[in-house]
Write a structure and sequence with these properties.
The protein is an alpha/beta fold. The chain is 23% helix and 23% strand. It is built from seven helices and 14 strands. Strand 10 and strand 11 form a beta hairpin.
Length: 265
């Protein structure tokens, strides 16, 4: 059963404050985390005393963002049991939660872009997206970042991090002068950075001509995000910035153990 503190009811916030939703990606099987994920979904594994996913929700609330959609597949019922329809930390405004149940509806996770397309009817014209299993306690979800993003014609704004040991070749380039993300191939002489999984997106990126999956992804098509981003980068429609705070892709039991050993509860 969920902690009673995570359940509450409250009126829908219809003002502009906190209205931009976030999609928290929590559908993956977590194969590399086995056996820990055989009985627990990876976003619920504890880091420094609380579930990984809770760190993301608390950070969003601190930034004034009060609506989140969580996509689920593997053991998704445990995530719903943990958080219910609202996350209500003591002393803070509640966060309204909705679920996109890929496992229940299709029997599997739909990958990142497929999951975004599935949740698109719940997300509006612009929204945050981030993985629920990435630990980035210093990241600030900023209203000013949102306003800058909305004032431009970019389809996405993503945060890149210095390459960790497990991804030395990076994912994308960054033109520091223009602030554009670059679709650099692996053999490019330009330096590449690692995608943090955190980004701001416009609905337009998940519609034709960029994406052919219908909104709501009624057939449950699996679709990766990187090809959409690379196409938009080629059109100079993706901006980026470097994030240098603490960041860990909690992809193995060893990385989880290191995090908890650094700051045991």
């Amino acid at each position: 059963m969920a902690n009673p503190e995570t359940f509450c009811t409250f009126p829908m916030n219809t003002s502009s404050d906190g209205a931009m939703p976030a999609l928290l990606l929590a559908a993956g099987r977590g194969e590399r985390m086995r056996p820990l994920t055989d009985s627990t979904p990876k976003p619920l594994l504890p880091v420094r005393g609380k579930p990984l996913l809770q760190w993301r929700m608390e950070a969003l609330l601190q930034g004034g963002f009060e609506h989140a959609v969580i996509n689920t597949a593997w053991l998704g019922e445990q995530i719903e049991a943990q958080f219910g329809n609202a996350f209500c930390p003591p002393g803070a405004r509640p966060m309204q939660l909705s679920y996109s149940r890929e496992g229940r509806d299709f029997g599997q996770a739909l990958e990142t872009a497929g999951g975004i397309c599935r949740a698109l009817p719940l997300l509006g014209d612009a929204f945050w997206v981030m993985a629920g299993d990435v630990f980035a306690p210093d990241f600030v979800f900023s209203q000013s970042d949102v306003q800058r993003f909305l004032a431009r014609d970019r389809l996405a704004h993503i945060w890149l991090v210095p390459n960790p040991q497990h991804n030395p070749g990076g994912d994308f380039g960054l033109d520091a002068q223009s602030g554009l993300a670059l679709n650099c191939p692996k053999d490019s002489p330009l330096p590449r950075l690692t995608f943090s999984t955190i980004g701001l997106y416009r609905r337009e990126l998940f519609l034709p001509p960029w994406c052919d999956v219908p909104p709501g992804n009624p057939e449950g098509q699996r679709l990766a995000l990187a090809p959409l981003l690379r196409a938009a980068m080629d059109g100079q429609r993706v901006s980026a910035q470097l994030y240098t705070g603490a960041w860990t892709d909690v992809g193995t039991p060893e990385r989880l153990a290191c995090l908890n050993a650094d700051n045991p509860t």
